[in-house]
């Protein structure tokens, strides 16, 4: 499976692509950071991010896109920009029929470091180690995009199994309720 990881942001938007192997083996295929000037009009900045994301999707053909979910930030303006950048990437993926998953920062940190409160340096160190990179990815947005893709690769199978189990339980519940309704109907007829 190929996963495109996205660390959304208006000034710097990290993009990565990794491929999963057997077990928890992951390989980095590409990583980059899209930069937009702070003095540029918002719509143009979002267009630059969308264009880059679309190019990546069309070139790399990911099976899934993992985007950092905006959880909370003290600066509302930054949070809005981050959410808008993530939104244009999600839209580009949806137009191509590529599944999109959102992961919180603590889920990503926990997946790659084992600690949901890890700092950026710890995340970068573990991403470097997990992917067997010779050099730490910089800036932090690049490392975060790789961490998002790794997180998705490791969480997606578990989430899929949980969804299948929930669907099976729901189906079993429907059959049980239908059987109970039939028994009640037959009891009334007597």
From TrEMBL:
Note describing how the cofactor binds: Binds 2 Mg(2+) ion per subunit.
Single Gene Ontology BP annotation: DNA repair
UniProt: Mg(2+) 2 binding residues: 68
Catalytic reaction annotation: Endonucleolytic cleavage at a junction such as a reciprocal single-stranded crossover between two homologous DNA duplexes (Holliday junction)
Subcellular compartments: Cytoplasm
Subunit composition and interactions: Homodimer which binds Holliday junction (HJ) DNA. The HJ becomes 2-fold symmetrical on binding to RuvC with unstacked arms; it has a different conformation from HJ DNA in complex with RuvA. In the full resolvosome a probable DNA-RuvA(4)-RuvB(12)-RuvC(2) complex forms which resolves the HJ.
UniProt xrefs under PANTHER family: CROSSOVER JUNCTION ENDODEOXYRIBONUCLEASE RUVC (PTHR30194:SF3)
Protein name: Crossover junction endodeoxyribonuclease RuvC
Organism: Antrihabitans stalactiti
Lineage, highest ranks first: Bacteria, Bacillati, Actinomycetota, Actinomycetes, Mycobacteriales
